[in-house]
Amino acid sequence: MPVYKAPVNDSLFILKDVLGIDRYNNLPGFADATPEMIEAIASEAARLSEEVLFPVNYLGDQEGCVRHEDGSVTVPQGFKPAYDAYCEGGWIGLAVPEEFGGQGLPYTLHAMVGEYTSAANMSLMMYPGLTQGAIAAILVHGSQQQKETYLPKMVEGSWSGTMNLTEPHCGTDLGLLRTKAVPQGDGSYKLSGQKIFISAGEHDMTDNIVHLVLARIEGAPAGTKGISLFIVPKFLVNEDGSVGERNGVACGAIEHKMGIHGNATCVMNYDDATGYLIGAENRGLNAMFVMMNEARLGVGLQGLAISEIAYQNAVAYAKDRLQGRSLSGPKAPEKSADPIIVHPDIRRTLMTIKAFNEAGRAFMLWTALKSDIAHRSADEKERQDADDLLGLATPILKGVLTDKGFDHAVMAQQVYGGHGYIEEWGMSQYVRDARIAMIYEGANGIQALDLVGRKLALNGGRAVMAAFKEIGDFCEENRDNEQMAPFTKALKKGLNDLQASTMWFMQNAMAKPDNAGAGSTDYMHLFGIVMLGYMWAKMAKAAQDLTAAGDERTDFLAAKLVTARFYMDKIMPETQLRKVRIEAGSDTLMELAAEAF
Question: Which class for 344: exposed (0-12), middle (13-18), buried (19 or more C-beta within 10 A)?
């Protein structure tokens, strides 16, 4: 059976020693995030993840959710007590303003905790995860009355939330949606239509479910310009805040899925359901994008989380499984064979995943910190700079971390050989669960197109130039540091490839847009390789400085430096491959007629 241990020491190293989170104690909520508080939060989140959430993960996969004839849904055994424990700890409201029952702490800490909980039980954590996204949308676009009505119950976890976008005939192209909203003259609307792929759409863990639903008001313009967002509760809310009569929304079916079986992914039917406009009329996508962007970061986090737990189990198996002898001579002569961790190819697999996980964790927390600065700083320029980098990083983080999260789950499964294909070992679940993260909240091809088609040119390229400058400045600042040369030289080569590819798009994609489409996924991964390399260079610098200062974590820091060198030697050179592919253009990709496929 699988195992899991939250990487607390690694998270604390990144927050304290690499990102210097204490430097931001002038931001609201950060003064309360003392080193002792952060360590306590990490330790308690680790305990919850390891002892409460993780033990019901395998059962949730095996049992799944059950829809009954009346449309109600029962979650797997053990999920509700685990969910209740999560809610009782106040974890949903960790970064929510105190006025609505939250703790007002940094979103960065929420991201740290989210990795642990998602690794322990991805399916279960999708329920509060969707709630947290809905909370974010209501906080930004909801009226004061809507905030007071819904947020306290959602923050405490007694009510949950969802996002309802997709319909049977349209996926990413939301301009095609048909769900209609009819004004009732009293400020409410009647919604009718069907939504599919609705995670946590129906379940028995909360007293109410607050659906955020995209719909088109009668007479609204066609396309995305005519979409509005509505709050549609499962049960209507009485004036005193109590749960009232059942609304006209029901689960028509649970999707039969490859993975995340413990999460109720529903077909939702709206039949004259009462809803309330959130935000401005015909500006629904603006409001929904708050939730979607939060979700994209959360999905990137899921990719990292699955990669981490798959890695931990592959390491445990590689240390225990005896097979063959080391190429350089027996390493366990007293045994019939050596553990497979002595074999170079097994180590290639494990080191590749390890290098990704540790840099991915740093990239996630770096991005979360940008979000905190963008939303909490009193300095307008500081907010804008952080928001620029947050917007640029979001599609990279979502696309790269989920693509690689799935790849690494498969690689970890491969370490097990035939046992990896057997359900009882648990690796199959990680492969199946990881697969969805590449698809939802905008499939990764869409993330790549968003990066190349929108984010690069946004505000005259302000964000991408700022990212290039930050990485370039780091290399320049450490140019004369010989100890840093293995890291800065490789990083600078990768940055050069990224800058050259960006320039190639500028010269070749305007007149021929297919060149941008053909190279977008390679560009997203090229950017990801460089960003993870930048994280490794920052971690290497911190490890060197701490070692020189006599820090007692000698083995931990030494392992950081070895893993950083591995990344620069074995993974960073992939930027050259990505650059060559981008510059090959779209000719051979687009030449064949559709009939030739």
Answer: exposed
Contact between 538 and 564 (Cβ < 8 Å): no
Helix residue ranges, H only, 121-246: 122-141, 144-156
Residue 175: pLDDT band with limits 50, 70, 90: low
Q: Compute the distance between CA of residue 297 and CA of residue 62 in angstroms, rounded to an integer.
A: 28
C-beta separation of 227 from 246 below 8 A: no
Length of the chain: 597
| Cβ atoms of 340 and 324 closer than 8 Å | yes
Structure tokens at 258: 């490859």
At 407, phi and psi to the nearest 5? -55, -40
Distance (Å, rounded) from C-alpha 276 to C-alpha 231?
5
Q: How many CB atoms lie within 10 A of CB 379?
A: 11
Q: Could you tell me the CA-to-CA distances from 399 to 44, 375, 591 in Å, in that order? A: 30, 23, 27
Buried b / exposed e along 229-265 (16+ C-beta atoms within 10 A)? bbbbbbbbbeeeeebeeebbbbbeebbeeebbbbbbb
- State the residue for tokens 């350089």: 328
What are the structure tokens assigned to 300, written together? 């990137």
Residue for token digits 């994609």? 509
Spatial separation of the C-alpha atoms in residues 346 and 114, rounded to whole Å:
29
Question: Is residue 321 very low, low, confident or very high in pLDDT (cuts 50, 70, 90)?
Answer: very high
Alpha-carbon 243 to chain mean position? 32
Task: Give the strand pairing for 228-233 and 208-217.
Answer: antiparallel
DSSP code string of 390-439: HHHHHHHHHHHHHHHHHHHHHHHHHHTGGGGGSGGGSHHHHHHHHHHHTT
Which active-site residues does the annotation give?
441
At 188-246, the pLDDT tens digits run 999 999 999 999 999 999 999 999 999 999 999 888 889 999 999 999 999 999 999 99
